[in-house]
Amino acid sequence: MAMPTKAQIFKHWMEWLDKRGFDWGEPCCWACKRYFDAKYDLNKPSATREDIINNWDRVPLQRCHIIARQFDGEDIPDNLFLMCKNCHDRAPNTKSREAFLDWVEKQDYTSLVQEDIMRELRTFELVDRVDDVNEMLADKELIKRFFSNSGFHMNQARGGLEITLSSIFSQIAHELKRGNNN
Ligand SMILES: [Zn+2]
């Protein structure tokens, strides 16, 4: 049997997603709920059910097995789940559908970002300087300069920041060290 498309997988999970408050027209990861970009939204007031379903084929989500292949998990929509790359990498490889869905319900993008920030604070030895870091993060001009220095693209969409945190934190660390020497 051929691997189902993302649209076919979405179609199977529509009611499940609806019960959990997912917006069918604004695709996000089904685990952490990370939202990608407005360009994947279905901005079409006259959209049919079919348009809504087919739109999911465009989204950069991965098709993940619930019961892993190595445990004879099948390539059918009921055993497949759409997730971002990060969640796919971290998801349990399990024989238990229940354990997988239990893990899914506990994912949360905000706390994942917080963990990532904590890791960068440790990397750049800034844990003791959280107040200074916060002050810098609140300085829009400074952040704008950090962004332009890094030469990446800033996407203002919800959760759609296409940068690595380390690019910013390395500059914060540099700036704070420079401040110390003044
Ligand atoms: Zn995710």
UniProtKB/TrEMBL annotation:
| Location of the HNH domain | 65-90
InterPro entries hit by this protein:
HNH, HNH_nuc
Q: Where are the transmembrane segments?
A: none
Q: Which UniProt keywords apply?
A: Endonuclease, Hydrolase, Nuclease
Q: Which Gene3D superfamilies match?
A: 1.10.30.50
Keyword Nuclease in the entry? The reply is yes
Please provide, alphabetically and separated by semicolons, the GO molecular function terms listed in this UniProt record: endonuclease activity
Keyword Hydrolase found: yes
- Name of the protein in its database record: HNH endonuclease
Which organism does this record belong to? Answer: Paenibacillus rhizoplanae
Record lineage: Bacteria, Bacillati, Bacillota, Bacilli, Bacillales
